[in-house]
């Protein structure tokens, strides 16, 4: 059926966007879809680029949600924080699933364009490092790859020096009356969080009487969900990398899979895991 109005489809959708905002305008699709610039001319490099770019977009959203969730935990308004943390968990589930697409890249296919990457590596991902800092995996040395980019360095430094989402959760435990050691409440935030027995005891008390501490119990479980998903991301990354490059060195200069596997042992929220043994 043809439409009587040439500016509309038969069921009423607009067809003429002269002077008005279209889908592509709103989403800035020209810019997004022009940002894939393979350097090698090899067929498979486009997959590699899109996999990274899509991951960075999801990381951008994860950071947006984590920053807002941290502000809510700081102000004690937990209900909206839960909604945001649940979304972060789903974002990581999405990222974890996406390794399956990259795993279709064989060692031979990757070798064909690897030289085109030069020294670029996910190790230099500013957003990944921001997520780590936001969650409490702090390491000042990780600022170094961004030293030449003042615009990235400053916000990353700020994140390094601020309390993480987990630090804010611990401070909330103290405000709710749990006896938390002062060293866990005011410290040099640029240092990674270290296991603290008083924090462990507080989480264990929350789990022992969930009815009395329902929202803290929910916060604890949301944090465990995030660490669980984050561990899976690290594991899928290390495994995908191993099947593509074996034990070759990384383009960023680390030992490669050896480095990635060593990161699997890093625990973000140690007391939440240890408390389970105490229950
Ligand atoms: C063929 C695919 C891939 C290979 C061979 C690979 C390899 C590596 C290697 C060897 C490292 C260690 C640093 C180095 O020496 O370069 C690394 C780090 C990293 N990669 Fe990948 N990677 C791949 C895909 C991805 C994708 C799709 C992402 C998503 C953004 C990603 C994000 C990262 C991040 C964030 C790090 C830093 C991890 C940390 O410091 O703990 N990688 N990668």
Q: How would you describe what is shown here?
A:
- This protein has twelve helices and no strands.
- It is mostly helical.
- It folds into two domains: 1-35, no CATH class; 46-278, Methane Monooxygenase Hydroxylase, Chain G, domain 1, CATH 1.20.58.480.
- Helix 3 (45-75) runs parallel beside helix 6, helix 4 (78-102) runs parallel beside helix 10 and helix 6 packs parallel to helix 7.
- It is globular and about 70 Å long.
- The model has no long low-confidence stretch (mean pLDDT 96).
- Residues 51-52, 55, 102, 105, 110, 121-123, 125, 128, 237, 241, 244-245, 250-254, 256, 259-260, 263 line the site of protoporphyrin IX containing FE.
- Protoporphyrin IX containing FE (HEM) is lined by residues 51-52, 55, 102, 105, 110, 121-123, 125, 128, 237, 241, 244-245, 250-254, 256, 259-260, 263.
Low-confidence residue ranges: none
Q: What share of residues are in beta strands? A: under 5%
Biggest beta-sheet profile: none
The helix/strand series, from N terminus to C terminus, equals HHHHHHHHHHHH
Indicate the mean pLDDT. 96
**Count of DSSP-assigned helices:** 12
CATH architecture group name of the largest domain:
Up-down Bundle
Ends: how far apart? 68 Å
- How many domains? 2
**Tally of strands:** 0
What helical percentage do the residues reach?
A: 55-70%
CATH-defined topology of the largest domain: Methane Monooxygenase Hydroxylase, Chain G, domain 1
CATH class membership of the largest domain: Mainly Alpha
Integer-rounded radius of gyration = 23 Å
Ligand names: protoporphyrin IX containing FE
Task: Give the helix/strand class.
Answer: mainly alpha
* Overall spatial form: globular
């Amino acid at each position: 059926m043809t439409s009587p109005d040439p500016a509309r489809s038969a069921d009423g959708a607009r067809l003429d966007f002269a002077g008005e905002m279209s889908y592509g305008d709103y989403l800035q699709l020209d810019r997004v879809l022009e940002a894939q610039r393979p350097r090698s001319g090899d067929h498979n490099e486009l997959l590699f680029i899109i996999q990274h770019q899509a991951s960075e977009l999801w990381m951008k959203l994860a950071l947006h949600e984590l920053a807002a969730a941290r502000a809510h935990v700081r102000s004690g308004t937990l209900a909206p924080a839960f909604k945001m943390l649940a979304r972060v968990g789903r974002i990581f589930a999405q990222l974890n699933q996406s390794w399956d697409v990259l795993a279709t890249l064989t060692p031979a296919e990757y070798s064909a364009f690897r030289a085109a990457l030069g020294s670029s590596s996910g190790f230099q991902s500013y957003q990944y490092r921001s997520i780590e800092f936001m969650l409490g995996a702090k390491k000042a040395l990780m600022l170094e790859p961004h030293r030449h980019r003042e615009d990235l360095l400053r916000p990353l430094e700020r994140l390094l020096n601020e309390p993480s989402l987990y630090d804010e959760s611990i401070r909330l435990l103290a405000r709710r009356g749990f006896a938390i050691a002062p060293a866990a409440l005011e410290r040099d935030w640029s240092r990674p969080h270290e296991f603290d027995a008083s924090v462990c005891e507080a989480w264990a008390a929350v789990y022992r009487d969930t009815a009395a501490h329902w929202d803290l119990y929910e916060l604890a479980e949301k944090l465990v969900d995030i660490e669980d998903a984050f561990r899976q991301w690290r594991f899928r990354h290390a495994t995908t990398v191993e099947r593509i490059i074996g034990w070759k060195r990384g383009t960023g200069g680390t030992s490669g899979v050896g480095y990635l596997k060593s990161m699997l042992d890093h625990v973000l929220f140690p007391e939440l895991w240890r408390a389970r043994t105490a229950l």
